[in-house]
TrEMBL record:
<feature type="domain" description="N-acetyltransferase">
    <location>
        <begin position="189"/>
        <end position="323"/>
    </location>
</feature>
<dbReference type="InterPro" id="IPR000182">
    <property type="entry name" value="GNAT_dom"/>
</dbReference>
<feature type="domain" description="N-acetyltransferase">
    <location>
        <begin position="4"/>
        <end position="178"/>
    </location>
</feature>
<dbReference type="InterPro" id="IPR016181">
    <property type="entry name" value="Acyl_CoA_acyltransferase"/>
</dbReference>
<dbReference type="Pfam" id="PF00583">
    <property type="entry name" value="Acetyltransf_1"/>
</dbReference>
<protein>
    <submittedName>
        <fullName>GNAT family N-acetyltransferase</fullName>
    </submittedName>
</protein>
<keyword id="KW-0808">Transferase</keyword>
<keyword id="KW-0012">Acyltransferase</keyword>
<dbReference type="GO" id="GO:0016747">
    <property type="term" value="F:acyltransferase activity, transferring groups other than amino-acyl groups"/>
</dbReference>
Length: 323
């Protein structure tokens, strides 16, 4: 068997890959949503600054493996391996994955390849009830054939991510959360839309979490008076105590969620649960139909989501393999 590196200009090979992808999605071997050819090509072949995309195709067009090297964040990823259904269990998938790994290790100089939510190449997928979607796959679906394949190819779990779902149609604050909100307000803690003209310490609080994605997504958001998306914050004596948001509704009806964080000085007060309820209620008022999110299995933040009524709908493994 031979494997060819696919050039971004070779549309014939790209169409062979697309047919394999569509077969896997239609056969429900993958949870990914259907894409048209141009969307598929954009994800795997269009140039992005600081990102080198690499794809191999089996010579007969029966399998492909694709990944990328994120030079900015110094990480390498396998995005997916797809083999035609009739050609599985013949060693084709393992062989083409090895080709991809060898090139990535050689060209990048990295010591590890991941399958994780850090991959900048994202694919939206539909949750099992079919009524909602989530914008990226945070690892390898543990109920899929891909999970056993990557285990057999030497990849090991380094984190487990649970995906949560909640329809917002009937959402409202629970009695317990209303009491907690009232109690916090008596202490002088209020829940507001962030305004840099009256609220202090936002930059220090966000940077204190040590999360590069929050630094990028939250601190770069324009202020509300310049038509930026609202960021929701708990406030004590004019100082920001945490954040959630930004407040936005995606075209699918999904309420956007970048994350939630409470400054360590203000934890253990139930502030996170009230702040998250404020987000859910605010998204509902903006006509969001549902929310999906994911978090680590052992992340204490999961209690916030479960308290709000979210249910786990799928579990993914973040996996890695060393050189």
């Amino acid at each position: 068997m031979e494997y060819y590196k696919v050039d971004k200009t070779n549309e014939e090979q790209q169409k062979q890959m697309y047919q394999l992808y569509m077969q896997a999605v239609n056969e429900k071997d993958m949870l990914h949503e259907l894409l048209d050819f141009s969307e598929f090509k954009e994800k795997l072949f269009w140039e992005q600054e600081g990102l080198e995309k690499i794809t191999f195709l089996e010579s007969r067009g029966k399998a492909f493996a694709t990944g990328c090297m994120d030079k900015k964040n110094q990480k390498a990823f396998v995005t997916m391996v797809v083999v035609e259904k009739e050609e599985r269990r013949k060693g084709i998938g393992r062989a083409i994955l090895q080709n991809l790994e060898e090139v990535i290790f050689k060209q990048s100089g990295f010591e590890v390849i991941e399958l994780s939510f850090f991959n900048p190449i994202t694919f939206s997928w539909r949750i099992p009830n079919g009524k909602a979607n989530h914008p990226n796959t945070p690892g390898v679906d543990m109920d899929s054939i891909a999970y056993s394949f990557f285990l057999a190819c030497g990849y090991k779990n380094f984190a487990i991510q649970n995906v949560y779902y909640l329809p917002l149609e009937n959402y409202s604050y629970s009695d317990m959360l209303l009491r907690k909100k009232e109690s916090l307000e008596k202490e002088g803690i209020t829940f507001e839309v962030y305004d840099d003209r009256i609220h202090k310490n936002m930059k220090e609080v966000i940077e204190g979490f040590g999360n590069p994605m929050w630094n990028r997504d939250i601190l770069s958001e324009p202020p509300i008076y310049e038509k930026g998306r609202p960021i929701l914050v708990p406030v004590y004596k004019g100082e920001v105590c945490g954040f959630t948001g930004a407040l936005d509704v995606e075209a699918s009806g999904r309420g956007y969620f970048a994350g939630i964080g409470i400054d360590k000085k203000y934890r253990q007060k139930g502030m996170g649960k009230v702040l998250f309820a404020f987000l859910c209620e605010s998204l509902k008022k903006q006509n969001a139909k549902f929310m999906t999110l994911f978090t680590g299995e052992n992340n204490p933040a999961r209690h916030i989501y479960e308290e709000a009524g979210f249910k786990v709908v799928r579990t993914f493994a973040d996996m890695r393999k060393s050189k």
